[in-house]
TrEMBL record:
Residues 58-142, 198-286 form the GerMN domain. The keyword Signal applies. Pfam families: Germane (PF10646). The keyword Transport does not apply. InterPro entries: GerMN. It comes from Marvinbryantia formatexigens DSM 14469. The lineage of its organism: Bacteria, Bacillati, Bacillota, Clostridia, Lachnospirales. SMART domains: Germane (SM00909). This is GerMN domain-containing protein. Residues 1-23 form the signal peptide.
Length: 320
């Protein structure tokens, strides 16, 4: 079964964020996500849950999403005929199953539904990620790949107000356990049209892999000073922390460099990557690899086995 979604970088929709849902200390207070009456953006209503047990709280919140308290102002994200037929929670991953009518949702309504369910349910301390099933199959993107585990960070933007969002399926490359090869991890994200796709790629790389069998390739304190694409050349300017070597860092220099290069070159329109560190190009990485560049995609470092974010023990990515 193949869910027909928006094509890569094709669908735009407005998701007006009334506020960012967080895991709070008051475990009974939640923000339930609906849409406005025009169904062009999300809206929230405060809700005091009755259930304390997780097994009872999950269906209570899902049921509440179908019935806004202010029906004159807000509408449910569940379109007519679309029903939630089941749910299960395992190791922090909530699986929500819908009937086959889900397949008939238009792209804008489908993404609003996803955003609303994920941002509502991940407010629970016990829920880190959400996976959608349609009948007996997983939710799939336009290429037939599983959409996989979703987090609220995939839909939130730090800016307040109404934002235009795009959907992208990214190919990210992280290190294998030995630190000598790259493994591809597919990650599906929604990002603000105010953010360039190349910056989204770097933000996702900085979060590290969702597959627990892979290793991160960048120090957590690295920041992207600037990133631009012109004439198929991506110029990436990183902070000086990029040159820091962790005590537990056993990655070969080429693995880190080409994790970035391959991830960016798999993006439409990038053929070469020029590195800068605090604006300087004549830099040695790990005292052995000259970053003068530019660098082209390196397929020789890629292992044939691939990883997806739908892996059962995947860790949630935080922030977007």
């Amino acid at each position: 079964m193949k869910r027909i979604f928006c094509s890569f970088l094709a669908v735009l929709l407005l998701i007006g964020m009334a506020g960012c849902a967080k895991k709070g200390t008051d475990s009974s207070g939640y923000q339930i996500y609906y849409t406005n009456m025009e169904k062009t953006r999300l809206a929230t209503e405060s809700y005091h849950a009755q259930a304390a047990d997780t097994g009872e709280l999950i269906p209570e919140l899902l049921d509440k999403m179908a019935s806004p308290s202010a029906p004159a102002e807000h509408a449910s994200v569940l379109a007519s005929g679309v029903e939630i037929t089941g749910n299960s929670l395992s190791d922090g991953q909530l699986t929500v199953t819908f009937n086959e009518e889900y397949q008939n949702l238009d792209p804008a309504a489908e993404i609003l539904l996803r955003a609303a369910v994920v941002m509502t349910m991940t407010q629970m301390q016990e829920v880190r990620t959400v996976v959608f099933h349609i009948g007996n199959d997983v939710l799939r993107d336009i290429s037939g790949e599983p959409v996989g585990a979703m987090t609220a960070s995939m839909f939130l933007n730090a800016q307040v107000g109404t934002n235009s969002y795009r959907y992208a399926s990214l190919s990210l490359y992280f290190s294998n356990k030995e630190g000598n090869k790259l493994v591809r991890e597919v990650r599906n994200v929604h990002y603000s049209s105010n953010t360039t796709l190349e910056r989204v790629v770097m933000e996702q790389l900085l979060k590290g892999p969702m597959n627990s069998q892979l290793l991160p390739v960048l120090p957590e304190d690295v920041s992207v000073i600037s990133i631009t694409v012109e004439d198929n050349l991506c110029t990436l300017n990183l902070s000086k922390e990029f040159l820091s070597v962790r005590d537990d860092d056993n990655l070969q220099p080429e693995v880190t460099i080409y994790s970035i290069v391959n991830s960016l070159c798999d993006m439409l329109g990038v053929e070469r990557v020029q590195f800068q560190v605090e604006g300087q190009t004549n830099v040695l990485y790990k005292e052995s690899l000259n970053l003068t560049g530019p660098f082209h995609r390196n397929s020789a470092l890629i292992e044939t086995a691939e990883s997806t974010e739908a892996e059962q023990d995947a860790k949630p990515s935080i922030g977007l």
